[in-house]
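hey so u asked for the seq, here:
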Amino acid sequence: MPSDSSITTASPSNGWKLTEENFSHSILSFRDRQAGVSSIFDPEADRYTYNAYCIESRLLTELFTCEYEFLSDAVAAINEEFGQWELVDLSAKSGCGSCVAKGAH
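ran it, structure tokens below
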């Protein structure tokens, strides 16, 4: 099957959309779905892990989640699975309108 040269797979060499620098304030979005990485602190282990996730934002339903020990692995998982989606920078938004729960009312 011939390859479509207009489709570029997200990878470190092709410029990932979600990065270790922007993961805390950016998501990948497609229609009513969003994918991203969140950090989780475990006080007993005194360390962070990273949750790669995809949710359906209107129903607040988790569609995909996987916990990683390293941020680089979580970012890679999201970009590999959802790298074609639109990057949305949430840092410019504020108040209740910036929360995924805004679609729940």
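Confidence is low (pLDDT under 50) at residues 1-8, 101-105. The two ends are 46 Å apart (CA to CA).
lmk if thats what u needed
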